[in-house]
Amino acid sequence: MDRHWRVVSLLVQDVLGEGGFGMAYCQSWRRWAAGRQVWEIRWLAHAYPWLDEALQATVAGDDAGRALAEAQRKAEAYVLCLERKGDFTDPELLKACAREVDPDYPSFGE
Q: With 90 as the cut, is the pLDDT of residue 95 above it?
């Protein structure tokens, strides 16, 4: 495990607790970053970049609570968009809602 992932793993454990979601996040994000997209819940995976952004900001010295609150705000707005559209399965709609919430949402090879 390289230095980056050690830091992220420690941060996730500190902020989110050991085990559960925190470790699942680290494992999922590591797989995605390695090019092995293991997105079992495709619509939920679109919130990962916001959580990663919060973790990166925290590692850089920003307040963890504030960074995670912003990630949560974006994720909730994203879910509300999907609920308004009535579809959690259409890949184009998933991207459109993510970009509606965050115009700087990453393109992931588009």
A: yes
